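Q: Got a minute? One more chain.
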Amino acid sequence: MNAPFRICFVCTGNICRSPMAESVFRAHLAEDGLDGLVEVDSAGTGGWHEGDGADPRTVAVLRAGGYTHAHTARQFRASWFDRLDLVIALDSGHLRALRSLAPTEQDAAKVRLLRSYATGAAADAGPGELPGLISGSDLTGDLDVPDPYYGGFAGFEECLEMIETASEGLLASVRTALTARAVVPARAPGHDVPCDPRDPQRSGTKERA
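A: Always. Here it is, folded:
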């Protein structure tokens, strides 16, 4: 049996952007029938909010977008790199921090910037490639999902829109990687599959009207 493809979304405190990205991407996977092949979670570069739930504004904007989510914040650990296929940073500061934390160059190469998947990189990648690898000269902040914590609800809505757009490219990239592993067909199955019912505490299924 093939091991699942594992992704962790990372922001600063794991209460705003990364739980939002986790929930949105889970819904994309379920809609594409890939939720049984990909495991998704999230974490923060710092541990200030460990044990807390998501920010109430994150919860509200997810509900308004038709997403559900149950969440407990935690801090990312260097030891996790060994079991992860992708570590998705929400901004360039997280990208630098995570690559500095990586035990090896191979682990550092697993860290990608989420919005790089919204730039057309997915379409340019070859078979089996995962786009989104950003060099030091590219860390200008132009691809950041901005931190909405100190602002109002509109900032959280903006983050959700950015995350949804980038998630489409990330999904295409992950599907390419899974196809290269020969665990899924080259095209999506064309029907929705609900999120894994065995994992109710970290679900992110998008509700349908």
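A: The beta strands are 5-11, 38-44, 86-89, 111-113.
Q: Perfect, thanks.
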